[in-house]
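Quarterly update, task 2.4: '5'-O-(N-(L-prolyl)-sulfamoyl)adenosine-bound model.
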Amino acid sequence: MRLSKFFMPILRDDPKEAEIVSHKYMLRAGMIRQESAGIYSWLPLGLKVLKKIENIVHEEQAKTGANELLMPTIQSADLWRQSGRYEDYGKEMLRITDRHDRDMLYGPTNEEMITSIFKSGVQSYKDMPLNLYHIQWKFRDEVRPRFGIMRGREFLMKDGYSFDMTPQEGKHAYNKMFVAYLRTYARMGLKAIPMRADTGPIGGDSSHEFLILADTGESEVFFDKAFYDMDWSTFEIDYDDKQAVASVVDDFTSKYAAAEEIHNQEEFDAKVPKDRQVSGRGIEVGHIFFFGTKYSKPLGALVQDAEGNQVPVQSGSYGIGVSRLVGGIIEASHDENGIIWPQAVAPFDVGIINLKSGDAATDKQCEQLYGDLQAAGFDVLYDDRDDRAGAKFARMDLIGLPWAITVGPRGVKSGMAEVKNRKSGEKTDVPFSDVGKFISQ
Ligand code: P5A
């Protein structure tokens, strides 16, 4: 992509409304634009990151055997009346009346609808187990939408739902998602600590939130320092191996970690020596629940078991804050000059800065490099605009691509590009023909 053709409306000054760094940088880099309180348009740069995150989520879900589908954003109130949540959900639910005076709503979550889909498609234990998910916009009329897309009213969520015959099998489905979530976040460069959590309006008796640490996080969290020494790499696992999956879950859940709503200082003191007790703030980037028959019973989702009995299905639901993650990753990875994207979610792999647009030799060299890198499979943003060098460097730092390659008349003469690693700040002179090789190492 040529910057001259890319819609990336950069703000020179810090936006006054931004209280936290991710919100500030997302606005300044032209990733999002506020349309109303807690409702945003995703501009091309922001959308690219959102898609990268979605893609990682899809890949990790596929490994677990989950099925992707797509449910609508607008739901009928009927199912919610059956589950009893229509009244319970209160003011957070955006209620709509259609032209026939039917009660509709903009979905804040989909437990009811998916249970009804399941019910209409599965009658026998032979079609189980099942995990169905989608990535879809949600609406929650939050009292205090804030921090940009971090606590929005309209936001993108991955929500998945498991269906099993027995509580034990349901537990395995829960464990699989637990491990898939660890892997998903790790691929985005995040250590998301699973913490015991309150189940709130979703319900059930077992639940974990995944939190990444950041001073600007909304929740206060308490955990064992031992988490720092755990294996957060994207370890390989056979999801059908119940024992192996359970042992990863046990390993993580045996250590104390809790958000404030559920934190118990006495238990913390008993389990964790003082010098290993850590408290801080965290951003909730995911939340998983096991609620057994809470929705299947009232909605009549019964399945025939091997003995011919009709039993209510065992379910859990599993959420990832896809749009919130964009802000969360920035909170976890930035400096005073801007964003530092982890490679896996960067909007482009590499940027090229033409120091002297209009100079025939420099333009030619940049075009050559731009073509070569694209041919080698890199997604490249070529800054071909006629701006001051200082402005170009600042803009490239702000948008935080992993690599920036500077090409100027002097380099053209000596046959060298200057390659800068955004994260380390290290600059290396590299012959033009070796740039691709250099940045892939
Ligand atoms: C799990 C999937 C649920 O809704 N039902 C379906 C369950 N869980 S949850 O914890 O309420 O939400 C899941 C994740 O969505 C993100 N999230 C938000 N992101 C941005 N703005 C919001 N207002 C918002 N509310 C929830 C969080 O990451 C949360 O973990």
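Highlight for this quarter: The mean pLDDT is 96.
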